[in-house]
């Protein structure tokens, strides 16, 4: 069922779960102070209980009350530079202010101010909400309202805010020892933080600090082969680029032009979902892509989807 912004905030305030658009992917939202509704999110998604949720706020100032004294250096500069936008910061919190279920009993919480008028107007009325991606756990994230309706068989009401502008999740940073590190690659590439931090944050090497990384993600039903050769052997479908040719391919699904990584990321989950819809058993993906900037995110998502 599609609902209006007013209906979405009314339902959230009553302790219900609704799906809302963000600039990255659609989120399955419940209010931070509605632990029963948060439990319902875990149930609906089939999400492991030890995988914490991101707290979504209407503005950066709203984060201040939750934080422990002396947040990591650069916290407020990062917030000022990138919010609203696709950045999540993992920060030490006053534990009594964030229900344990939302943060999976971690002493930290993830925060972000999303950049989409619809969710921002809801958050202004309701206050803080948690929102994981609005997909069944393990599946590709939803980049339009229809994906959410399909995953939850219409049982979760959705605000239709159009197709997501980024199409891939927020980049997650956490402060470890002396520096910020990237806990999840996402819509912002590590290089984007250089002007604010004075360095490019490195990829976090442990899964212990970011529980979500332990689980299967983004995977369609089909078996995915990441291909470096030019020939897509035996696959029913090739996922590739519109400016390349794939000799012998039976069917090609295009991610867009190979010189436009933002557009490629925007269409990635839609394309992976298309495989399921067409009941494809195996697909060959053109993995001949660079290892820097936004391409790093594409490489990571494809590797996980193929696991
Ligand atoms: O773009 C996004 O971030 C989307 C939209 C809806 O905002 N949300 C999203 O949420 O991707 P989700 O639940 O699919 O992914 C949240 C990730 C997980 O990998 C989780 O482990 C990590 O954030 N996370 C959340 N809180 C954390 C914490 N306190 N410590 C470490 N990792 C945390
Ligand atoms: Mg997710």
The helix/strand series, from N terminus to C terminus, equals: HEEHEHEEHEHEEHEEEEHEH
* Backbone structural class: alpha/beta
Q: Indicate the overall shape.
A: globular
Query: What is the share of helical residues?
Result: 25-40%
The proportion of strand residues reads 15-25%
Spatial order of the strands forming the largest sheet: 1-2-6-3-5-4-7-8-9
> Roughly how many Å apart are the termini?
33 Å
Number of strand elements: 13
Q: What's the overall average pLDDT, rounded?
A: 95
Describe what is shown at a glance.
By secondary structure, the protein is α/β, with parallel strands linked by helices.
Protein described:
The protein has 307 residues and is α/β, with parallel strands linked by helices. Helices cover 26% and strands 18% of the residues. The chain has helices at 5-13, 35-45, 75-82, 117-126, 145-151, 194-197, 261-277, 294-306; strands at residues 18-20, 27-31, 54-56, 87-92, 108-112, 129-130, 171-176, 179-184, 202-203, 223-227, 237-240, 252-254, 282-286. The strands form two sheets. It has a nine-stranded mixed β-sheet, with helices on both faces. α1 (5-13) runs parallel beside α4 (117-126) and α7 runs parallel beside α8. It starts with a helix and ends with a helix. The model has no long low-confidence stretch (mean pLDDT 95). The structure holds threonylcarbamoyladenylate and magnesium ion.
């Amino acid at each position: 069922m599609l609902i209006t912004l007013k209906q979405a905030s009314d339902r959230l305030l009553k302790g219900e779960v609704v799906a809302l658009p963000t600039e990255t992917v659609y989120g399955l939202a419940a209010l931070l102070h509605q632990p029963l509704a948060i439990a319902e999110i875990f149930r609906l998604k089939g999400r492991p209980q030890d995988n914490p949720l991101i707290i979504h706020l209407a503005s950066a100032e709203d984060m201040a009350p939750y934080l422990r004294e002396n947040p990591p250096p650069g916290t407020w500069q990062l917030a000022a530079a990138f919010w609203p936008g696709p950045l999540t910061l993992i920060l030490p919190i006053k534990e009594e202010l964030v229900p344990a279920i939302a943060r999976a009993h971690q002493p930290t919480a993830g925060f972000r101010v999303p950049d989409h008028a619809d969710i921002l107007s809801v958050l202004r009325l309701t206050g803080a909400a948690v929102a994981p991606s609005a997909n069944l756990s393990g599946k590709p994230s939803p980049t339009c309202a229809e994906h959410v309706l399909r995953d939850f068989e219409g049982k979760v009401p959705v605000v239709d805010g159009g197709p997501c502008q980024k199409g891939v999740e927020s980049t997650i940073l956490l402060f470890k020892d002396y520096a910020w590190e990237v806990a999840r690659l996402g819509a912002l590439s590590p290089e984007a933080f250089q002007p604010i931090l004075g360095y490019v944050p490195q990829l976090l090497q442990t899964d212990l600090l970011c529980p979500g990384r332990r689980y299967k993600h983004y995977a369609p039903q089909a078996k995915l082969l990441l291909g470096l050769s030019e020939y897509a052997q035996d696959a029913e479908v090739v996922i590739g680029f519109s400016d390349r040719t794939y000799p012998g391919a039976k069917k090609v699904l295009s991610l867009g032009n190979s010189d436009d990584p933002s557009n490629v990321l925007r269409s990635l989950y839609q394309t992976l979902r298309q495989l399921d819809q067409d009941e494809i058993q195996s697909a060959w993906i053109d993995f001949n892509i660079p290892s820097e900037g936004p391409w790093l995110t594409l490489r990571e998502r494809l590797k996980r989807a193929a696991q």
